[in-house]
Amino acid sequence: MEQEIKQLQRYIDEAKKIVFFGGAGVSTESGLPDYRSQEGTYTKLEKEHLNPKIVMSKRYMLENPVAFFNRPNTQKKLRPKPNAGHQYLADLERSGKDVRIITQNVDGLHQKAGSKLVVELHGNNRRFYCMKCGREYPLNDMPRDKDNVPRCPIDQGIIRADVILFGENLDPRVLERSKALLADSDLLIIAGTSLSVYPAKNLVRHFGGKRVVVINKTPIDVPDLQVDLMIESEVGKTLEQLTI
Ligand SMILES: [Zn+2]
């Protein structure tokens, strides 16, 4: 591990533009669930005999809003804080390094830590809007109907989070921005993701630099790119050993 940290440190020191491509594993050390592990969101749903691709879809939200909005959601009760990984990346940027973050997470923890260039592939769970009129409502003061479904008092439209659900396409501008950042960076750090979820696998192919590092608890397959360094560990635990 020590040798791997030294190598990562050297790569970061030498890089001018670093692109960090992160997934759920970046936030697990902040207490947020990932998808597929024992406590993962999908695993829990499947234990209840629910198919995540169905019950986390746009169609299900529209056709079964009462069930959709009344499902126990552990994430909402938590007030997650950035962990050592988020903090390191923000501090590195603050020191003058060109750090770009592309994240599959919707939790906003990179921004909370202070990162300034964060592309959110799957949207964010801090903005809520009415699907009919677009009015925005704050999470803490969400108008709800008698069935506890968040609804706009003006036109009774469903109020939803600005996140990508199953059955929805990613914002093409966000995809283009991600590709451009990947193409224009010289070090790619893929962290806390299996790259198995669309569009992660296809996106990293656009990396135009020469060095690729993976930090993940289990080894992953990175198509079309040669991985220079694979660190099998947690993301925060790894990054906190580095110096700025
Ligand atoms: Zn409305």
TrEMBL record:
Transferase in keyword set: yes
| Keyword annotations from UniProtKB, A to Z | NAD, Transferase
Which part of the chain is the Deacetylase sirtuin-type domain?
1-244
Q: What InterPro entries does this protein map onto? A: DHS-like_NAD/FAD-binding_dom, NAD-dep_sirtuin_deacylases, Sirtuin, Sirtuin_cat_small_dom_sf, Ssirtuin_cat_dom
EC number(s)?
A: 2.3.1.286
Cited Pfam families: SIR2
Q: Output the SUPFAM superfamilies linked to this UniProt entry.
A: DHS-like NAD/FAD-binding domain
Q: Could you state a single Gene Ontology molecular function term?
A: NAD+ binding
NCBIfam families referenced in this protein's UniProt entry, alphabetically: PRK00481.1-1
UniProt-recorded name of the protein: protein acetyllysine N-acetyltransferase
Source organism (scientific name): Pisciglobus halotolerans
